[in-house]
Design goal:
Blueprint lengths: L3 E9 L3 H8 L16 E2 L12 E6 L7 E11 L3 E8 L4 E11 L2 E11 L3 H32 L1
Length: about 150
């Protein structure tokens, strides 16, 4: 199994409380996801993040085909980090860490994503042709959206 990695960093001029309040709430995911993904949360995960929290979505990552995706929040350290892992969905493996660190200039955020695709050779081929660029474009969208949202 080939495991891919994506790491993104961003500095936002907000407090740790503002950052945590925004990023730890599942309902805010839709606002930082590109419209073409048709992202929709299909359960009521609650307003506070916690270990064991399940979040179910419908997403259309390729050709507008809707897929069910279930993630679990596996680790939470308030104001420092949380981790979500796929339990059911399009990936063979998905482990996404969200880290927050307070600095004099604001909040330094870091996403560390590790993921793998099913179907060995076919998965590697699809990754190089489509998936890598799609994941990068989603995180590019998030970066730009967050800059606009919190720079104002």
């Amino acid at each position: 199994m080939k495991i891919y990695q994506l790491q993104r960093k961003q500095l936002l001029p907000i407090t740790i409380e503002e950052a945590w309040d925004f990023f730890s709430k599942a309902e805010n995911l839709q606002s930082i996801t590109p419209d073409y993904m048709n992202f929709l949360i299909t359960n009521s995960p609650g307003t506070e993040i916690y270990n064991g929290q399940l979040i179910t979505y419908k997403v259309s990552p390729i050709l507008s085909v809707p897929l069910t995706w279930v993630t679990e929040i596996t680790h939470v350290k308030t104001h420092q980090y949380f981790i979500d892992e796929q339990r059911f969905g399009p990936f063979k493996f998905w482990h996404h860490q969200h880290h927050f660190k307070e600095t004099d200039a604001g909040i330094h955020m870091e996403d560390q994503l590790h993921y793998a695709l099913p179907f060995s050779f076919i998965g590697r081929t699809v990754h190089s042709l489509v998936v890598r660029n799609r994941i990068e474009s989603i995180f590019d969208y998030r970066y730009k959206h967050l800059e606009e949202r919190f720079q104002s």
